[in-house]
Request: fold
Amino acid sequence: MTSPFEIEEIFPDDGEHQVRLPRRQSGNSPQGMAVTLLADYTLRTREWLPSAAIVALLAESGVSPAGARTAISRLARRGVLEGSRQGRHSSYRLSRSAAGNLSAGGSWIVTSTATARAWDECWTIVAFSLPQQHGAQRRALRAQLRWLGYAPLYDGLWISPYELVPAARRQLADLGPGAVTVFRGRQVELDAVIARDPLAAWDIAAVAGQYETFLGRWRLLLPEIAAGRVDGAAAVRARTEVMDTFRRFPVLDPQLPLRLLPPDWLRVPAREVFAAVYDGLAGTAERHVRAVVAPFAGDSRPGIRAHTTADLLAGLDVAGGTDDSRAPESVTRGR
Reply:
């Protein structure tokens, strides 16, 4: 099992949203933190934030000013952010493509951990073969399959207990003739010595350990949240960290049927703790972000709005176009 997962696997590109989201790194990634911050408070509105305000917010999480400015610049070059300049002052917002990816990804995170699907005891098998010179295409396919809940049982043979969804069909259709075969059927029981259990494609013990670590870390904060003892800066840091951690679980634990998993599987308790932290700190964190941005923006920035897990579950409509009331002298999209 690959860990930590790249953010492309968590919020993948599709045919309509070609944007290169930053790779996840060990520890805190300034680019990943910047994306999470902007998504958590400006995803619906794509509000412009002064670069100095973004730097100040990242500084509260331990990112140096130089590191923050480098992260912003790289995100603009990747097409994740749009930049504007008015005199000597620059502002940034999520690009429409990035916002679309992040909105879909957020909905997927809470949906896939909130429901349990029925299972007919059949497996979907995707077998593919791509020439060595098509390495980038092979990596993109593997990332997309993992995002869709598939895992490699053998090299070039990926499995899932669920039907092939339209998104996967479209991805596979782009591979070209003779590149892939898809089957669906029941496992034939063989001698235990030679048989490979389909569950071996996932490291179930490692996933359980990740859940236990997550719950041990975040349950400790719940009494503090309930008592209102988490201040603004700490609320923003906690929401950023809990989202950055929890969003990996649908990839680590791709909603396998409960009958295949150990008793007392911790998917539901982990989701409940995530929602308690993320939702419980939303108001405090939003007020703090507004307070940090205000000295740099010169106005209240009504587009700064924290969303909750219920909002993500319902789906967030992403604003499009340019807000003419804040029209910059120039708008650029990093390439």
Notes: The chain has two domains: 1-117+203-335, 123-185. The chain has a mean pLDDT of 82. The beta strands are 49-50, 81-86, 89-94, 123-128, 151-154, 157-160, 180-185, 330-333.
